[in-house]
Amino acid sequence: MTPRADAIRSPARRWRDAGQWHSVPAFAKVNLGLEVLGLRQDGYHELRTLFQTIALCDELLMKRSSDGSVRVSCDHPQVPTGADNLVHRAAMELRRFAGVEAGVEIDMRKAIPVAAGLGGGSSDAAAALVGLDGLWGLHLGVAGLYPLARRLGADVPYFLVGGTALGLGRGDEVYPLERQVRAHIVLVDLEHPVSTAAVFERIDARLTARENSNRIFRFILRDLAGDVSAMRHLANDLEEAALEEAPRLAGPMRRARRLLSDGGAKLASLSGSGATYFGVFDRHEEARRSAASLRGAGFRAIVTKTLTRAQYRRAWAERLGRKRVPAQLEVPSPWKSQTSK
Ligand code: C5P
Questions:
Q1: Which of 35, 118, 200, 273 to mutate to test the pocket of ligand 1 (most atoms within 8 A of CB)?
Q2: Cα-based angle 161, 162, 167 (whole degrees, multiple of 5)
Q3: pLDDT at 18
Q4: Measured on CA atoms in the order 242, 280, 213, 220, is the torsion positive or negative?
Q5: Which pTM was predicted?
Q6: Best of 42, 44, 204, 236 to mutate for ligand 1, by most ligand atoms within 8 A of CB?
Q7: Which atom of ligand 1 is least distant from the CA of 45?
Q8: For residue range 254-277, what is the model confidence (pLDDT) as tens digits?
Q9: How far is the CA of 54 from the centre of ligand 1 (A)?
Q10: Using CA atoms, how far apart are residues 209 and 49, in angstroms rounded to an integer?
């Protein structure tokens, strides 16, 4: 059943009140840079990526179900709501992991384009884990949820952290960075869902012995130390494979990149395996004007901005009804110790 707007509990109220809907945001990400280093023995690819959360978000409304069942509904026709849904899987796995019988009803309101390289499904799953940790009173916190997040998908652990972060391994070893990127973002939704697995499969044919790029490390050292020009050297190794997978995107991508660059973007790139293109701008006004010119050329453009890790966690904490970020949302230090599980 879909909740009525007036039945959604104000954040100041207690999280665990029975029968009340609670709202948890699930923010999107872009990959400011993505390098594919090789094929791993587990069939995944070894990555080095620079994740960045943005303000565009889905919303998960959740309440305890009286009969102990797990039910997921969604306002987007392309999102499955059964056992295949990542949020459904997150709830079932958390229940098993924590050994509880509690149930939940989750209604998802999608704003993040689906299968677009913005991490929407992974973010929804991470938000479900954090929300259920509160709703079911489990107190696992970010550290306790990490191994579960990892099982659900390579990008899910990142969404337990948020902000500007380095992703290594499958992308699931996440290192929050000290300096956080603050910028305005224009998303160009090319409205063509692309399968991540298919893009990664195509990249295997291109993996040749080469010296590993150190663009991301250079960026971390220089840009985050104040040299903003370094961002333009970042790139996404999946771009060519995404174009092979969806050749009809070649023209639109080229046009989108040109419009973003002409509009003053200091980086214009594909996010994840696509097919969302994005531009990074210093000023809101530039971003707004660039989006207007993209719309004039027939593109669907969204203006948003980056969220730092502190802003990301604060947004969660507010919805969880806390003035301060609660201890269980703190990212453990060193985060590394969690990755060996
Ligand atoms: O982990 P997730 O299910 O989101 O990944 C989707 C698919 O993308 C995987 O099944 C895999 O084929 C591919 N992938 C990969 N290497 C990564 C991440 C994802 O090959 N590091």
A1: 200
A2: 75
A3: 57
A4: negative
A5: 0.89
A6: 44
A7: 16
A8: 999 999 999 999 999 999 998 999
A9: 22
A10: 19
